[in-house]
Amino acid sequence: MGFPSDFIDRVRDSSDIIEVISQYVSLKKRGANFLGLCPFHNEKTPSFSVSPSKAIYKCFGCGAAGNVFTFIMQREKMLFPESVEFLAKRIGLDVPQTATPEQRTRRDRLYAAANHGHKFFREHFKKNPLALKYLESRSFTAELAEKMEIGYAPDTWDEFTKSLKGGHKEMVTAGLLREKEGRYYDYFRSRLIFPIKDLSGRVCAFGGRYLGTEDEPAKYLNSPETPIYNKGSLLYNIAQSREAVRDAGFIYLVEGYTDLLRLLTCGIDNCAAGLGTALTPQQARLIRRYTEKVALLYDGDDAGRQAAIKGARILMRAGLEAEIISLPEDHDPDSFLLKNGREGLEKIPRLPLLAFQLKLARGDVSDRRVREKLALEMLESALSFHGEMKRSLAIETISEMLSIPVQALTGEFKKLLRQQTLERESDDVTPDILEFAPVEVPERDLLRILLSDPASGEDVYTTMNPDILSNPMLKNIFITMKSLFLKGQLPDVHILLNEFDDPAVKNFIADSALWEMPADRDILLTDAQSKLREFARKRITAALKQQIKEAASKGEDYSEIQKKLKIVINAKEI
Ligand SMILES: [Zn+2]
After folding, report:
1. What pTM, to 2 d.p., does this model score?
2. Measured in angstroms, how far is the CA atom of residue 48 from the centroid of ligand 1?
3. How far is the CA of 44 from the centre of ligand 1 (A)?
4. Which CATH architecture has domain 438-570?
5. How far is the CA of 152 from the centre of ligand 1 (A)?
6. Superfamily holding 101-222
7. Per-residue pLDDT tens for 46-93?
């Protein structure tokens, strides 16, 4: 499908895997390999290993594994041909036009659609004074609207639809049109439009605030999820704030578009906002790419405070340092900044999670029941601390804050921990780490040798019957290797990684390729093969004996089966 294989090889060979992955993960050299925090699961100690010589990566924590293409596919949510194109462009290679238009431009077309929408909304913002008037009524300036490229969706059902010459279906996919009974109409109507940009700064979605006078419509409407937009893994303004975040050493996280606009108005550029959902672990990992420190600036009401506690836990679980700015109850970030400015905000202490929870406990902490309830909530927060030491320090802090003995707290904490472990296990987030039955160990050894040195397997591909393998996954890999070899292709790790979609298979392939080949490789190979034949012989023998038994019990002739059995027992090769 798509590109000629020599082009794919060229892209892979010219892409430095360390350099590519370093754009997403900070890697440190460790021996022959590089090590970093896995971008595919939450961890505090690095178990994500990249081998520059084999040009593959593997996470020993979650089992994610692959090469430079699979990495880009997973990180950038791309299909294989798209990842090839992405990397080719990166190293300045001309992309041959052999991919089908469908494969080549699906995402490009969606970006073009979003871009068309963006232009349309901008034009109407300039045409219609209503939107700017609204912004000015909330003390936002025209300059800010210009800087944030704010748009306006006019108060009609089909203005945008009419602006299109075709490609309506695409616009539905891009989340700009709705379709009902074969008719199309605008997704956004009578709304102030905030363009949402992805990490490369391309507009990929929109958020719209209703400006009309009807009662029904939701105040905020966001683009639906599309192939180029996943609201749980992006944040508003994150790409634009990159440098300011680096300079400040932390990021302000707010919940709404107007909160964010207000921060910008006050000259605070190191900020990002959620996209209408509660903070997700993916968003926490996204932030971790830019900074390790987050100041949560949520509404001062009860809902805002609870959201801040949950948000802080998620950030801490992702290994980030989280602090909460506790606003007065009747304020949101926008109203507070409008009244008190940047100075007022900077005067409010940023509280660590436990201190914030203590501050919130309005009930009298001398009341035993209040204290018990609070202790449990704080212990739940302590679960998001990383490592034994931080957790026991957290428990000590809670003990001091609430005058409850450490021992009692530790007992409760262990209960919570067990509960969490049970929940995690049922979540089943990590792919199975492969376990091999003793009978399969030589099968694994054989495949490992072939995968770490595909050229060494000539004999094996030509002589070994795949049926000799009992593990279905290994058998499947071997069949694929064999057929590639018979077609005259060297079944190397990169070709194989592209052949399989199953993460468990990818994991095994990458793992094997990273395996340090022992010096006695040839002995191991012969040994594995002879063991396999022995196992196969036993399997076949047992099956034939069973057939004989059955035939005998039915009084049937089993001399033919017996002959076969003799041959198997005496045979040198299976
Ligand atoms: Zn991982």
Report:
1. 0.62
2. 6
3. 11
4. Orthogonal Bundle (1.10)
5. 42
6. DNA primase, catalytic core, N-terminal domain (3.90.980.10)
7. 999 998 878 889 888 887 888 898 898 888 777 777 888 889 888 888
